[in-house]
Structure to design on (290 residues):
């Protein structure tokens, strides 16, 4: 799933390639992708892109056209991605064929496709007058890389929490933009068990977790800076230390990275770095990420 660093890189990329250009047509290829109907998607035809913003894991294209200021807001979900094309294929896309979900065609002949792999379709596109009309955007917590999100603000957020830290980091209503992969990476950098209860964090541990969060996300954003959209997935994978590396040696201590499975996903961690050398048991996972 694209998380804060990748979506931020896409925001930067689209800001450079899209702002100032005119939308010729928005062409949905999957019925499930559009989550709003008023204003209609056709209201974007002829509109000019005025800006690109990020809200957590949501991309927000601001436009100005005959219908006034409208926003096309996208959440790529787990298996979605954006593919920029200097020259789009001629002719409209065929609905229901392949992974294509939606196409944005610009008047200059360029544009981009939104695609989604797999059979579970969760990629979502909204056309709204205000991004806050999107329920997922409206409930977002603070951005962890915002200049005003300091240690005091982070400490205050966790003060009322009574759950495992992995689940807290992934809760978009608590902190925006962190998903399964980067929560693993943050906890590894903080040398903290994903099952540690938030209420048991000391002031020193909270400060260490805050620093690990800011550093991990900031370095991931920096690695992605200037990359084309098509290279971001590979960059994310290459920069991960423990997530997705079950059975590989930890780059810090050399211990074997372990995995715990739950529902349709899993977490990875290093026993030596994070749990005092003790493997975590799956039976404790029923409390995680609810």
């Amino acid at each position: 799933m694209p998380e804060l660093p990748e979506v931020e890189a896409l925001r930067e990329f689209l800001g450079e390639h899209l702002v100032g250009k005119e939308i010729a047509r928005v062409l949905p290829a999957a019925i499930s992708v559009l989550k709003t109907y008023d204003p209609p998607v056709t209201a974007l035809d002829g509109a000019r892109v005025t800006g690109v913003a990020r809200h957590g894991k949501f991309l927000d294209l601001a436009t100005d056209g005959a219908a006034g200021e409208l926003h096309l807001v996208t959440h790529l979900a787990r298996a979605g991605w954006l593919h920029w094309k200097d020259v789009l294929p001629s002719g409209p896309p065929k609905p229901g064929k392949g992974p294509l979900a939606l196409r944005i065609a610009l008047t200059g002949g360029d544009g981009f496709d939104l695609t989604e792999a797999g059979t579970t379709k969760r990629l979502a596109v909204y056309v709204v007058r205000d991004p806050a009309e999107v329920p997922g955007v409206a409930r977002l917590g603070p951005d962890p890389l915002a200049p005003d999100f300091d240690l005091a603000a982070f400490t205050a957020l966790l003060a009322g929490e009574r759950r495992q830290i992995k689940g807290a980091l992934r809760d978009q209503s608590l902190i925006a933009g962190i998903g399964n992969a980067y929560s693993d990476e943050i906890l590894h950098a903080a040398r903290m068990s994903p099952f540690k209860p938030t209420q048991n964090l000391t002031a020193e541990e909270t400060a260490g977790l805050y620093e690990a969060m800011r550093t991990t996300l900031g370095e991931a954003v920096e690695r992605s800076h200037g990359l084309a959209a098509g290279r971001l997935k590979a960059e994310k994978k290459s920069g991960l230390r423990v997530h997705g590396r079950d059975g590989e040696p930890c780059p810090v201590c050399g211990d074997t990275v372990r995995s715990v499975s739950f529902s349709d996903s899993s977490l990875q961690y290093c026993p030596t770095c994070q749990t005092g050398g003790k493997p975590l048991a799956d039976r404790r996972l029923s409390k995680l990420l609810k």
Notes: The longest strand covers residues 48-55.
